[in-house]
Amino acid sequence: MAAINPGVAFDAALVAATSFDDAAASATAAAIEAAPLPTGAARAARLRQAIGLIDLTTLQGDDTAARVRALCATALDPLGDGSLTTAAVCVYPAMVPYAVEALAGRLPVASVAAGFPAGLTPLATRIAEVADCVGVGAAEIDIVIRRSHALEGDWQALYDEVRAFRAAAGLAHLKAIIAVGELGDATTIARASLVCMMAGADVIKTSTGMEKVNATLPAGAIMLRGIADFEARTGIRVGFKPAGGIGTPDQALHWLALVESILGPDWIDPSLFRIGASRLLGAIRDELAG
Ligand SMILES: O=C[C@H](O)COP(=O)(O)O
């Protein structure tokens, strides 16, 4: 992953001046969906690239040590030929020790945290959870924001919370899930993205996978433009993770195309781009197996 984002001071005026047009976001997404996808060998190569970007995820109430160990074995050798790995494995906090043991440092373990998926447990509990996950070996922490702060326009409160998660995460990479499907409009998505980046998120992530609406290309377009603006303003490169409902090879290819079209080829790398998915790997594997 890229260097830790130290964050920048909260800038209320910049947040207030940040807006985004829903129609522009939809138009960007529509252009990506209308463009032809690669075919033949180029498609296969791109799908292999996508596998290397996956945070292979299980976030089920019935997760067990055995399921997590099996997931880790798949992440280390997803095509069964030793040719590549996924980017990371993503699990609930209680499953982190099993993943850490199974991966033995060969891949990072990402833990969801901060009261995932709603972010509505007491703040002290959410901060302690972040620290606990790091303490048992998670190298990446996928926190959720408390959506009410964004919906009520209390951007200082959102900044302060994410700043506290940044501090609790220490040297672990911090991914901030903004839950686009619950934020309402493009401007709120743009402002939430900006505030999380200001507070020190290394990656901004669309969704938990548990909202009614999860990763969408229009929301992605808004977040990616925010990442580009933030880099132009601060020199800090923040990564991007669409997650939730990405289950087909075509969807993965659209996400790669969107990221590349807005941020350029540098971002097609696990240090700056992840796809959070539980079913996508199986679908890509099926296609590649013909
Ligand atoms: O962070 C990852 C998501 O929870 C995965 O969502 P999914 O099960 O729809 O692929």
Automatic annotation (TrEMBL):
Q: Which reaction does it catalyse?
A: 2-deoxy-D-ribose 5-phosphate = D-glyceraldehyde 3-phosphate + acetaldehyde
Q: What is this protein called?
A: Deoxyribose-phosphate aldolase
Database matches in InterPro entries:
Aldolase_TIM, DeoC, DeoC/FbaB/LacD_aldolase
The molecular function terms of the Gene Ontology recorded here are: deoxyribose-phosphate aldolase activity
- Its Enzyme Commission number(s) read 4.1.2.4
Q: Which Pfam families match?
A: DeoC (PF01791)
- Similarity remark: Belongs to the DeoC/FbaB aldolase family. DeoC type 2 subfamily.
Keywords of the record:
Lyase, Schiff base
Judged by the first EC level, this protein's enzyme class is: lyase
* Pathway field: Carbohydrate degradation; 2-deoxy-D-ribose 1-phosphate degradation; D-glyceraldehyde 3-phosphate and acetaldehyde from 2-deoxy-alpha-D-ribose 1-phosphate: step 2/2
Keyword check for Nucleotide-binding, yes or no: no
State the source organism's domain of life: Bacteria
